[in-house]
DNA sequence: ATGAAAGCGCTAACAG
DNA sequence: CTGTTAGCGCTTTCAT
């Protein structure tokens, strides 16, 4: 069933059918109804490819989840408590806005060609990327295509510095620095002076912000900076677990550990537990992200809540705005986080 | 940049460019290289809409997640431990097979028109649906379109009974009946005779299978069938929590509870804990799905593991097979489950 | 207010 | 082996 068939059945021309479909104003109600009736009756739906080829948008956005470090992990992002909510929230919001969503995962540099192709082949009107590495090439590559792009968790400084075209680019972040600072102030307020840190991927903006907040807090309060207490977790459970074991074996433990995300905090807690170190009695632990499990484990994990739903909605709104109105809404939206106090931290006072 | 531009630059015709792109055999290496070089050089990518319009496939599959009961829950599927892994596994597998994935959520009957449109508008070559209700209309509607369709968790009996065209339809299930039976046998083997059940949505195939296995097990062992021990959870945490409270207040508890999924089992455990009922000391609990959290809570939850990754891969393989070769691979693939014993069940002997 | 016709970028007979 | 040509189904000037 093509528009021409509808046209014949309704006794009009294809142009008229097209006008009805696209809600052109100068068309009498009578004609409109006549055409609409046939369309209904035959369950006609215009062919998307033809419409796109004739100049319409695809009404589809791409959502790209970048997780380069997890390349060799079979249970990949769905074991990752950070990305899953973004995927769902973006889909929900975009669907509600009448957009289809093409979701693609990026585990390797090569996967990026698929992302680029999605744009270049005109499969999507615009795209959202989450988890981008501090890799200006990639951003320039994709951003240079001149198509609407929203980056979730990216340093606006990078963009400015490299003079990227900002007309179809937007950034959505969370206030990670503030959130991490809140976590540190909380621990310090509880009387902790020896505080360890499990770092995330420093190639991500949030990873760097959280690390910097840790360092700044120590310095601000004149607390000791122990290299041995600084673990490299890369946002991954396994790494955090291994590093925690190493720390335990070293014989010297801090009184508190701030982890750059909950997944790693939980992994570290497992390691501690297995070695007879009690949380929070011996060591306090606080995470980041406030993933659903955080409240379900024992002891429940204190954390910093990330407004993932708000961030996702903002990202979708921005991309839709750019796709439809050609709105060049450059700028960073930064969403506040919230300290969630639970049972994994104890006061030393 | 269009194929014509490439043609000019390479000194050939558009057809030749097309032949190179589509890997036609009868084209000399020299010509091929010449064209390929220009394509590389200009980062040319053929316009998907044009290719599709000219008869090619979209190389895109749709993945539709149906969760009708959660319509009014803001934190929807990403709070759902059952769907999230499917989403990710399908995307991963399809991406690896060179396919793009259009993901859409269905929370209401109206959302189904979006699903139908995705097919009718030729946005996808085929689709996978998970969570379909026992609603043959929907299946007939979508299946009647004549496009490749794979249903995850659906009763093949429904298909047969209604004489649906089976040439482009396949079903992928897990052995829920066997899995639920294993869970029941496990509890019974531990000496439990009063066993409660938290039912899932009986409109889903797995929901019905799990319920039937419960009933059959009781009957087979001549155990009492207490209506009061049969809770209606609809696969939702909140319902399970509320029902558990009701059961506790009734004053009579079974010695064990089999929950049709882990989310509900965990919710029930919370309710029990809040009312001073100890698990597994007072009541043993076993769930289904073996979601990641199951092993992380205290006590760790015994469960039945679902081979989500295998099911997803099979679904993708089937859909890809049907899309590419026009393979009419009708039939049901049914994947075995695995009983996972943890700390939430105790022996009464 | 509506129809005719050109064209979007590509593929696939058909010729040669 | 390669070029010419006719669509694929729709939108959109341009006429009328």
Structural commentary:
Chains A, B: Keywords: DNA-binding, Repressor, Transcription, Transcription regulation. Chains A, B: GO terms for molecular function: DNA-binding transcription factor activity; transcription cis-regulatory region binding. 2 copies of one chain form a homodimer. By secondary structure, the first copy, chain A, is an alpha/beta fold. Chain A folds into 3 domains: 44 residues, 434 Repressor (Amino-terminal Domain), CATH 1.10.260; 144 residues, Response regulator (Rossmann fold, 3-Layer(aba) Sandwich), CATH 3.40.50.2300; 131 residues, Response regulator (Rossmann fold, 3-Layer(aba) Sandwich), CATH 3.40.50.2300. Chain A contains 13 helices and 12 strands. Chain A has a 6-stranded parallel beta sheet with strand order 2-1-3-4-5-11, sandwiched between helices. Chain A starts with a helix and ends in a 9-residue tail after the last strand. The mean pLDDT of chain A is 92. Strand 2 of chain A pairs antiparallel with strand 2 of chain B. Chain A binds a DNA duplex (16 and 16 nucleotides) through helix 2 and helix 4.
